[in-house]
Specification:
28 helices, 35 strands, alpha/beta, Lyase, Ornithine Decarboxylase, Chain A, domain 1
Length: about 850
């Protein structure tokens, strides 16, 4: 007799199907749902990374017919996983054979149609579900494998291209009695099938777009009238922000469908935004569950989950955003202007995200994730737009969105938060008529800092926590610091705090950082930026490592000369900014490299430079960095000579017989993108053609240092390869680099004892004996420094607290909402990654002496 049990759909993502322990969780979840009286339908993604491997396979087959290696990698991954699961690897034999034939066909024809691409990409889900079905049977579960393409048919969209219909297909989600009957007639109690794929009206395989497994689950749940849909992933729910950027982000317990979709559209990766509509249409609740921790309660998304009160639920960010600004007075009172310009976007297949309009301007944002954008397509679009308006492309933007309910009603409460934008350009500001979001478009380099500071205001200082669960850092305290040098030196460090707060620097860490930079074979000379940390022992260490020194003041220059009396003057680079004439005179007399970043010295003191060799610091017009204050290029920066001033520069150096032997540019600090130095090197090399005496190209510093545990390190190997490729074209130049923070940040920590503790409702404060007088970066830049209780390093971190100093300023906060071990007066707190711009920027404000220094050999 066919089952009449209510349906429930459980979807498991790529991470959730890539370990045996997770398949044991899947099996247990299936048992529980069966015991609860449900008939489960399990939907699975491909194993983690396999979709990328399949895409690589197609590329290799087309490029040179070398698909065999890519095929072997895919086969080996699944064969090894079959062994891990303890199932027969031959269960995939037929699929492997089909994939091999298709790849060979692509290699022969050297062509990949969208249809072939869809066929190839579908194998990831077919492989994972075949293995999963075999494993579940082994677990004594009555399971049937089902090809979802027999159940899901896409809807052809006449206005879409064939590629869009095949690779980003959509399906209807009306309840299907016939499908329900088919499932009811299946003898097995449990069905496992694929996400991401479907078929079209012609029976061809189609894809639902990357991340489409969520949508597959939602379609199926809607079609069979499921009682619930569960999305199982590696996180327990939707958080108030991306935990990778904001470790203090807290899990949201309940959301409405509208709120969840808005958060997903605004950049959250937990859910695919397209999965919401099918569930909302049939009022099917959505539960987010955590595969590694199945016992945790996750986020619940329902029709009526919204708070009636006005509130902000989350703050999200999307990066890699481009803007197009269209300006003309012709649009005023002109019928059809918007239709004309948006027809241009449609012509080039480019979709628009945000729109802001004024009487003479329309600005739109383009999401590089949802659009396949390249220089050619954008150039053609801009060319077409010029017929109607003056169109301008703005690159490297980020979209920050507040998501919640009735946001307009609480704008007055949010007013203090808007002061965070005082030093920041806002390119675009929009607010939905549904009053569910408030969106800002800002410089991408500033996005993470603003996100973190806004989150601190909205959630980390709030007592309205009835709908918030634990923070990410509390849920996932598995990040171990015991591999850090300071964890190994715990006892010694604790003994150094008896006399008060102290900076401690580790020599071994300094040398490791130097070795990483020396590994850049494309770089001929390294000049350490002295301003990052001028501790005598650190400078001696770098001197022994044969580094040069970049000085930005006469004081730094004299300090280096006094410390190293026999130093070769050419190991010193003098790069002042708006310095007095006397500083240039002294530097020239010392015969060090002198770097000019303004025309004023050549215009007003030409006699100083007549016949001299100099470097020129150029502003290439693009500033980068983790904060507005560390961006050192662009018209709003005081550094460098603008490209528009080059003709005047040429006239001055010719008139006064000045020899330009080097070009220099520095875009900013805290940059982790290889393209920064690649673009700088390429631009300087090209500009050097105008200066026949140039021998040196100084591509600046600013190499990013990871601040948070989830941050990625700068890929030094990729940087070296990219720079070496440029040097092949320009072998006549020496490439220079001037790292500062990169060399010293991770070698230093700030240690300070706890003086007092305080609680204000849910807010807990831990006070230290020093604060912004010793370390001003968190207040000045919004910088993030990891903070741990060194005294209780081996104890569980269970207390959420804001770490503050004793200075009489409300900004004297070293860290908001940090998870630390239970803390007592007298404990020693450690502020990590504090070796750069710490002691050198300290002060005795409030007549409080800053932390001392200690060099650990």
């Amino acid at each position: 007799m066919p089952s009449t049990a209510p349906f429930i759909v459980l979807k498991f993502g790529g991470t959730s199907v890539s370990k045996k322990e997770y398949w044991l969780t899947i099996a247990e979840a299936a048992r529980q749902r069966l015991a609860e009286g449900f008939q489960p339908l399990i939907v699975c993604s491909a194993l983690s990374g396999i979709s990328d491997r399949l895409h690589h396979l197609i590329t290799e087959a087309v490029l040179d017919g070398s698909q065999e290696t890519a095929l072997d990698v895919i086969k080996e991954r699944h064969t090894e996983f079959a062994k891990e699961l303890g199932v027969d690897e031959n269960v995939l034999q037929e699929e492997f054979h089909q994939l091999t034939q298709i790849a060979q066909g692509v290699a022969l024809t050297q062509e990949v149609t969208p249809s072939i691409q869809a066929q190839v990409m579908a194998f990831g889900e077919l492989f994972s579900t075949r293995l999963g079905a075999a494993f579940l049977k082994q677990q004594a579960l009555d399971v049937a494998w089902q090809d979802v393409r027999a159940w899901l048919q896409s809807v052809d969209n006449p206005s879409s291209t064939e590629a869009q219909n095949l690779l980003s297909a959509v399906c209807d989600y009306q309840t299907e009695a016939e499908l329900i009957q088919k499932i009811r007639a299946t003898p097995a109690k449990l069905i496992i099938t694929q996400g991401f794929i479907a078929r079209d009206v012609e029976g061809r395989t189609v894809l639902l777009g990357r991340g489409g497994s969520d949508t597959s689950a939602a379609y199926l749940a809607a079609k069979i009238g499921a009682q619930a849909c569960e999305i199982w992933t590696d996180v327990p729910g939707i958080y108030t922000s991306n935990p990778r950027w904001v470790p203090a982000a807290r899990m949201i317990k309940r959301l409405s469908f509208d709120e969840a979709r808005e958060i997903a559209l605004a950049g959250a990766k937990v859910l695919h935004p397209y999965c919401i509509d099918p569930l909302r249409a049939h009022n099917i609740p959505l539960y987010i569950r955590c595969t590694p921790n199945p016992e945790w309660e996750g986020t619940v998304i329902t029709q009526d989950a919204s708070d009636l009160d006005s509130t902000v639920k989350a703050i999200s960010m999307k990066r890699a955003i481009k803007l197009i600004s269209m300006e003309t007075t012709d649009m005023w009172r002109k019928v059809g202007f918007l239709a004309d310009v948006f027809a241009c976007f449609k012509k080039h297949g480019i979709s628009v995200d945000l729109i802001a309009t004024a009487e003479n301007n329309v600005t739109v944002s383009l999401d590089t994730v949802s659009n396949v954008l390249n220089n050619n397509s954008l150039a053609h679009l801009l060319s077409d737009l010029q017929f109607y308006c003056e169109a301008k492309l703005i690159n490297d933007c980020a979209v920050i969105s507040l998501v919640g309910r009735h946001i307009r009603a609480i704008l007055h409460q949010l007013a203090p938060m808007f002061s965070l934008f005082e030093e920041q350009n806002i390119y675009l500001l929009t607010q939905a008529t549904t009053d569910i979001n408030l969106t800002f478009v800002v410089d991408e380099a500033q996005g993470e800092r603003l996100l973190r500071e806004m989150h601190a205001y909205l959630f980390e200082q709030s007592v309205n926590t009835k709908n918030l669960g634990d923070s990410w850092q509390k849920n996932f305290p598995e990040i171990s610091y015991h591999n850090e040098w300071w964890a190994k030196a715990q006892a010694q460090l604790l003994s150094l705090t008896k006399e008060g707060p102290v900076y401690v620097y580790d020599k071994a860490s300094l040398i490791q950082a130097v070795d990483r930079v020396k590994g850049l074979e494309a770089i001929n000379r390294i000049f350490y930026a002295v301003k990052a940390n001028d501790n005598t022992e650190i400078l001696k260490c770098f001197y022994e490592q044969n580094l040069g020194f970049e000085c930005v003041s006469l004081g730094e220059l004299k300090f280096i000369q006094a410390l190293f009396p026999s130093i070769d003057p050419k190991r010193i680079l003098f790069t002042p900014n708006f310095a007095a004439r006397e500083e240039y005179e002294a530097a020239l007399a010392a015969e060090v490299f002198v770097n000019l970043d303004n025309l004023h010295p050549l215009e007003h003191w030409p006699e100083l430079f007549k016949g001299r060799d100099v470097l020129i610091r150029l502003d290439l017009g693009v500033g980068r960095g983790h904060h507005h204050f560390v961006k050192t290029a662009g018209k709003q920066s005081k550094f460098g000579i603008a490209i528009s001033e080059l003709s005047r520069l040429h006239a001055l150096i010719a008139e006064h017989e000045v020899q330009v032997v080097g070009l220099h540019s520095h875009a900013g600090s805290g940059v982790s993108e290889v393209k920064n130095w690649v673009e700088t090197a390429s631009a300087l090399a090209s500009l050097a053609e105008q200066f026949p005496k140039v021998k040196y190209l100084d591509i600046g510093g600013g190499l990013g240092v990871p601040e948070k545990p989830a941050d990625k390190s700068l890929d030094m190997s990729a940087l070296n390869l990219a720079l070496e490729a440029i040097k092949i074209d320009y072998p006549q130049f020496e490439f220079w680099l001037e790292p500062g923070r990169y060399l010293v940040a991770e070698s230093g920590v700030l240690l300070a004892r706890v003086t007092q503790l305080k609680a204000k409702e849910e807010m807990v404060y831990i006070g230290l004996e020093t604060g912004m007088n010793s370390l001003i970066r968190p207040m000045l830049y919004g910088a993030y420094h990891e903070i741990v209780n060194l005294t209780r390093l081996n104890e569980a971190r269970t207390e959420l607290a804001t770490i503050v100093g004793p200075v009489c300023e409300s900004t004297d906060v070293l860290g908001h909402a940090r998870l630390v071990a239970p803390t007592q007066e007298g404990d020693v707190m450690l502020i990590a990654t504090a070796g750069a711009y710490g002691h050198t920027m300290s002060s005795s404000y409030n007549r409080r002496e800053p932390a001392a220094e200690y060099f650990l050999v």
